[in-house]
User: Fold this.
Amino acid sequence: MGVYQTAMRILPVETHHVSDLSQLATDTFVETFGHLYPPEDLSAFLEKSYAPEQLASDIADPAQFWRIVYDSDKAVAYLQCGPVGLPHPEADPAHEGELKRLYVHSSQQGKGLGKQLMAITMEWMTATYGANPQWIGVWSQNHKAQGLYGAYGFERVGEYRFPVGKTLDDEFILRRQP
Assistant:
């Protein structure tokens, strides 16, 4: 029996990827954070954020940068970047970018895929926004993600509350000066 090796493909998100993106976004959010919320809050958030119709609208925005990763024919990771939208007094959406979402399915974690997506993110934000600050919002208890972002020079500069249904999460605002 021969060895079968799959190749990861990192692709721009297009309309025909929306169904896969919706399922992946839902699955990764639930596996990462689902245990934190009452079912009605989780359901409301998923419908608002990850419904195919919402994602189709989101990917059509030319200011947003999306990538989806496939392992064979299965979507396993994605990222979204765009103008900063974090509630920080120094954030300037006209000139500064934000990593809005970066999720890797648990089956693919620990293989360097998050670092690869961070490299793509940094390249896009620098190409798009030059030497201006780059931003990320991250859940205050997501220490793994904070460690990854810290390795790229992001530092905590603020806090805010992120709504998931009626639940308000404590989030950190991170900034990096390239």
